[in-house]
Amino acid sequence: MPLPLLKVIPFLCVSALVYVLSSSLTLFVDAFNWNFYKYVYFIPVFCLALITKTSRLTVSHLQISKIHV
């Protein structure tokens, strides 16, 4: 397995957990606040975007280090 992929797997698990927790939270908050949906569905998307950005950075960093060596 490539090293960046191994680093990404835990983040994917965390984001999946956050998504499950947030979706279960919406069931409780549903009756109280409709605006909560915006934040709840933004969290997993933000996590996913952060993961892809960091994985791209690690890949580009590895490529740069290979060039220097």
Give a topology summary.
Layout: H1 3-29, H2 36-68
Helix pairs in contact: 1-2
- Find the count of extended strands (DSSP E, 2+ residues): 0
Determine the N-to-C terminus distance. 22 Å
Helicity level: over 70%
Biggest β-sheet: count, sense, barrel?
none
Number of domains: 1
Uncertain spans, ≥5 residues at pLDDT below 50? none
Topology pattern, helix = H, strand = E: HH
State the shape. elongated
Structural commentary:
The protein is an all-alpha fold and 69 residues long. It has one domain. Helices cover 87% and strands 0% of the residues. The longest helix has 33 residues. It starts with a helix and ends with a helix. The relative contact order is 0.15.
Summarize the structure in short.
The protein contains 2 helices and no strands.
Keywords:
Putative ovule protein; 69 residues; 2 helices
